[in-house]
Each structure stands twice: as structure tokens, then as C-alpha cells.
Amino acid sequence: MLTAEGVWVSLPGVGSVLKEVSLEVRAGEITGLLGPNGAGKTTLILAMAGLLKIERGRILLDGRDLYSQLPHARRRIGVVFQDPDDQLFNPTVRDELLFALDQLGLSSKEKEERVARVSAQLGIEDLLERPVHALSFGEKRRVAIASILVYDPEVVLFDEPTANLDARSVKLLLDTICELRRERKAVLVATHDVELVSRVADRVFVLYDGRITWSGSPPIPREILEDASLSNSVGGCAE
Ligand SMILES: Nc1ncnc2c1ncn2[C@@H]1O[C@H](COP(=O)(O)OP(=O)(O)OP(=O)(O)O)[C@@H](O)[C@H]1O
């Protein structure tokens, strides 16, 4: 559905951040993008959402060049950013969700129905009239996800979705991600959390230093995790 083919991205002063990256996000599947800090996960998400120019290679949506389908294709691809403050800027939660729907030409009744459905799904019904800036981090994260799901994109790209969430919020998030798979959405989850991708992903791509070093179904071989600095071997305090 959404494919990166041999993608290269360079950033000024940094050099090549993505090196010949190929990856496919398929409908009805959860694709894990696993990599340590600085591997290039956010950069790849931005490129696959058409928000960053690539230097070489291709990004394809349904087999056709994504960039030639912009800006229309942006509605088909939702990005849930790592920091919810990067995507929330309306006064109240309800305004935030309605704003996302303003471009779709829906009736007021249809808009309210969508807001009600997504709010129930993410457990934010009681937050709808609250000012966004006064929400907790976990609440903001749920609102940020709702503001994407409310316009019903076919592809949803999550950047470090479980960072800074407590166990209950992680459970709610995983339920949401699994529900998207049941709805036949194409889902990408970028994270450094090996346990998370091992539990939910149908296929995993390991990204290390801008290159895909492994892809396949979990479990991920231990030597691949070690080579990508992802093995969980942090010791305690030295005596
Ligand atoms: N706008 C930018 N300007 C300069 N360098 C950048 C910029 N964005 C990313 N980089 C660099 O590109 C590399 C990849 O960054 P990226 O944010 O894509 O990695 P990541 O895998 O998402 O990391 P993390 O897990 O820490 O969020 C890093 O070395 C980062 O410092």
C-alpha cells in the first residue's frame, strides 16, 4: 500500500540519514520499524508521509509516486508524532477533532458522529470541552491519535507511540492499534521497544544507522538486536 524503494535522505550538516531504505506497509498488517535513537525512524516516517523531500529512490502509494499525488494523498496517510504538542494547536479537544474534519466536506451531523465514535474509542469523551494545553501528556497523546483517526486515513504511521505512557495508556494504545488492523488499515509503528514490536507487529524492519539491517516476522534474532544496539543488557550501578 505504502512503499519506500531505495530511499536516500541527506540532511544539511549531518549527511546521509537514510541509506537505500526499502520498506512496505501493507493494509491489514502492523509493520514494526525498530531502531535505536538516531537510527532515522522519524526521518523515514516524514518521507513516507510526503512531508520531507527524498534525495534518491521512490515513495509509492498504491504503486504510484506519492509526491505526484500530493496534496490529496495527505488525507490518506495519518502521522501520529512522537510529541503531541507538535500536532495539537486548537483551543479545546472538540475543536481539535472538528478541525481535522473541516477539509472533508461532511455535514455537521456526520462530523459530530465521527467525533463521538473516535472519542469513545480512545476514552476521551470527558475531555472534549477541556483546553488542550492543560491536559496531561497521556491525555494529549490520546487526543493526538484521535485527531488523526477521526479523518479515517487508510495508512497510519505512529512515531514512538508508547513513549512516556503508563501501563494503562499503553494497553489502550495497543488495543487501538490492533483495532486499526481489524479495520484493514495499513499501520506502521516506529519504536526502539523490542517487546512492543515483538508482541504486535506482523512484520518488522530493523533500522540501524540509516540502513535496514533485517526484516521478517518476529522473533527478531538476538544477534540482529545486538548489532543494532537494541538488546536489553543495561547493567546496574558499578560498585
Ligand atoms: N532537522 C534536522 N536537522 C539536522 N539533523 C537532523 C534533523 N532531523 C534529524 N536529524 C538527525 O538525523 C538522524 C536521524 O534522526 P531521526 O530523528 O530520524 O532518528 P530516530 O530514529 O527517529 O531517533 P529517536 O528514536 O531518537 O527519535 C539523527 O542523527 C538526527 O540528529
UniProtKB/TrEMBL annotation:
Domain ABC transporter: 2-234
Pfam family, one: ABC_tran
Localization annotation: Cell membrane
Keyword Transport: yes
InterPro entries hit by this protein: AAA+_ATPase, ABC_transporter-like_ATP-bd, ABC_transporter-like_CS, ABC_transpr_CbiO/EcfA_su, ECF_ABC_transporter_ATP-bd, P-loop_NTPase
Keywords recorded for this protein, A-Z: ATP-binding, Nucleotide-binding, Transport
Annotated PROSITE patterns: ABC_TRANSPORTER_1 (PS00211), ABC_TRANSPORTER_2 (PS50893)
Protein species of origin: Infirmifilum lucidum
Protein name (record): ABC transporter ATP-binding protein
GO CC entries: ATP-binding cassette (ABC) transporter complex
Known function: Probably part of an ABC transporter complex. Responsible for energy coupling to the transport system.
GO molecular-function term, one example from the UniProt record: ATP binding
